[in-house]
Amino acid sequence: MNFDNIELRDLIRFTSNVMGKNFIFDENVVKGKVTILSPKNLTKDQAFRVFETVMASFGFALVSTPEAIKIVRSTDAKGMALEKLEGQQLLDLPPEDRFVTYVHNLGYLDATSSIGILKPMMAKDAHLAAIPSTNSLIMIDTASNIQRIKKILTEIDIPVSKQLGTLKVYNVQHTNAADLAKTIQSLLTQDKKIQTQTAKERVFVTSYGSTNSLLISAPPEDMREIERIITDLDTLRPQVLVEAAIIEVTTSRGEEFGVEWIAGVTGGSDNTRGAIGGFTRQGVGLLGVTSAIASNASDPAKAVAAAAGALSTGFNVGVIGGTIHYNGVEYPALGAFLRALSTRDGVNILSTPQLLTVNNEEAEIIVGENIPYLTSSRLDTSGNPTYSFDYRDVGIKLKIKPQINKDGFVNLNIYQEVSKVTEASTTIGSSAAPAPTTLKRSTKTTVVVKDSQTVVISGLIKDDSTDTRQGIPFLSSIPVLGYLFGYSKKVSEKTNLLVFLTPRIVYTAESLQQISNQKKQEQDMLIQKDRKQK
Questions:
Q1: pLDDT in tens, 342-381
Q2: Distance between CA atoms of 404 and 503, rounded to whole angstroms?
Q3: 93 with 176, same domain?
Q4: Distance set, CA 312 to CA 163, 261, 295, 308, 493 (Å)
Q5: β-strand 204-208 against 213-218: which pairing, if any?
Q6: Is 518 exposed, middle or buried (0-12, 13-18, 19+ CB in 10 A)?
Q7: DSSP structure string for 319-334
Q8: pLDDT 10s digits, 291-335
Q9: Nearest-5° angle of CA 417, CA 420, CA 423?
C-alpha cells in the first residue's frame, strides 16, 4: 500500500473499493494530500486502520452508521450519534481510529476524581464525563485510545486494604447532625456492600454540634453511598400549626323548694326598717328581699312587686299579710316565699393554645403552677414536724405529635391533661400539713384529621348530684308540716371537657408568614374592640 502525494478524496475512493464500504463526506471540507509508504503487503483490516490514522492526522473522524461511514471533523464527532460500546464489546473491537462512545463502570475509584487523571491521556477532541449516581465514566474518543485507557483503569481501579479515603465535611441543613450520624452508621452496618470488618474500620462518621455538621472519612465507593443517604434524609420537613381550644362545659339542673318565714322591723325617727328570720339563697340575698318588703310594708301590693324585682333569677311568688304592732314597734306581716330555680349551662374556656412544630416532632405546652407535693414527714428531736416535698406541675398540659401523610391528612398523637388543687393541705396527726389534693383529668388518643379541619375530643368527666335541706330546728322535722318550716335544694351537675383541635400544614416559609400576619390582624382587631368597649 504505497501512495505518493495522493488527494484525500482519492484515498477515500480507493479504500471504499477495497473494503466494500460506503463513505459519506464533503469534498469542500475533506481536503489535503498524503504520502503512504508500506514495506510489506497489508491485510484489508490493516489497510483500513492505516486509513483511519491518516484521517485522524488531518483532524477528521470516522462515524459509523448502518448505511455508511461518515467522515467529519473530529470536533463535530462528539455531538453525533456514535456507536455505543460497553464491557466486552470494546475488547472485541479492533484498535481502530474511528470515534466511538464507551461507558465504563468503576468499582473502587471515584468517577469524578478520575477525570483529572484520565483527561490528559485522551485525544484533543475527545470527551470525558462522570456519572456520580452510578460511578461511571462516559468516553467519546477513538476506539484505539479508549482501549488503551481501559487497560490503565483495569490496573488502578482496585481495592486498597483499610483505605481511609478522603475526609469530607457536610453541613447539615434541615435535621440534627448527631441523629443523622447515628442513622448513617446503622444503615452502613446493615449494607451488604460494607458489612465486612475491614469496611467498618475504614468508614468513620461523626457529628460536630456547634455547626451542626458531619465529618465523614471513607473510601470513594463508601463515600458515594453516604452522600446519597444524606441527600435523601437531609430534606426540609413541613411544619404543622395546631390550634387548640380546651373548654369545660358544666350542665346543671337545680330545683329549690321551701318556705321562708320573714319578719321585718320598723322604728326610729327616720322610719328605718330591718328584717329578722329567713335564709340567704341564690340570686339576691334574702335580706335584700326583706328590705324591699319593709320599704313598702304599708302597701302589700307594692311589697310583692318590690320583692319580685329584688329576686334576679328563677320563679318567685310572694304572699304578704298586714302589719304587727308590739311594744311600740311595727313589724311587717309574716310572709311566705316559694321559689323554684334552675340554672343554665356554664361554659368555661380553660385555654386556647397554638403549637407550631416540625412534622413528626412532639410539641408541648403547660399553663399552670409548680406546686409542692408532700413526699415524707418526720419529727425532729424537738418534736417539731419536718416535711420533704416534690414539685409537680398543676394546670393545663397539652402534648401533640403530628405526622403528615401524602394525602394531606395529619395523624395526631394527643395527650391532654387538666389538673387543679381541690384541697391545699392534709391533716396529719393533730396538725395540718401542706399536702395538696388535686383533681386530674386526662385524655390520650390518636386521631387522623384532614388539613385545616377541626376535630373535637369530649367526654363526661364528672356527674354529681347533691340534696340540701335547711329549716327551723324541730319544726322542720315535723312530718308533712315540716315543709312549711324548711327549705330543700336538689342539684344535678354534669361536667364535660371538650378539646377542639385544628391542624394546619405549613409547607413553606411564605405560608407560615401568611398565617402569622393573619393572627396578628386578629389580635389587633381584638385590641381595638376592647379599647372601644372601655
A1: 344 567 778 888 889 999 999 998 888 888 877 777 777 7
A2: 10
A3: no
A4: 91, 19, 18, 8, 22
A5: antiparallel
A6: exposed
A7: E---EEEETTEEEEPP
A8: 554 565 555 445 444 544 444 443 333 333 344 343 354 444 333
A9: 150
CA quadruple 106, 108, 112, 114: dihedral sign: negative
What range defines the domain where residue 219 resides? 166-235
For strands 84-86 and 99-105, give the pairing: parallel
Residues 367 and 497 in one domain: yes
- Does 385 fall in a domain? yes
Task: Report the CATH number at residue 191.
Answer: 3.30.1370.120
For 332, the grid coordinates are 311587717
DSSP string for 435-480: --EEEEEEEEEEEEEETT--EEEEEEEEEEEEEEEEE-TTGGGSTT
Distance separating alpha carbons of residues 487 and 514, to the nearest angstrom: 60
SS3 at position 142: strand
Tell whether 231 and 193 lie within a shared domain. Answer: yes
| pLDDT at residue 431, as a whole number | 58
Say whether both 97 and 214 belong to one domain: no
Q: Which residue has the cell 408541648?
A: 364
Q: Which of 53, 7, 48 is nearest to 30 (CA)?
A: 7
Tell the burial category of 249 from Cβ atoms under 10 Å away from its Cβ (0-12, 13-18, 19+).
Answer: middle
Tell me: do 351 and 461 sit in the same domain. yes
CB 278 within 8 A of CB 382: no
Tally of domains within the chain: 3
| Calpha distance 264→292 (Å, rounded) | 10
In a domain, 172, yes or no: yes
Q: Does residue 82 lie within any of the structural domains?
A: yes
375/479 same-domain check: yes
Contact 452, 504 (CB under 8 A): yes
Q: 351 and 231, same structural domain? A: no
CA atoms within 13 A of residue 389's CA, in its CB half-sphere: 12
**Distance (Å) of CA 30 to CA 7, 25, 59, 73, 80:** 10, 7, 9, 9, 18
Q: What is the amino acid identity at position 451?
A: D
Handedness of CA 186, 190, 196, 199 (dihedral sign): negative
Count of residues in the chain: 534
- pTM over 0.85? The answer is no
In this structure, is residue 68 part of a structural domain? yes
Q: Which stretch of DSSP H or E encloses residue 413?
A: strand 409-423
Q: Whose grid coordinates read 387548640?
A: 244
DSSP state of 533: H
Same domain, 376 and 501: yes
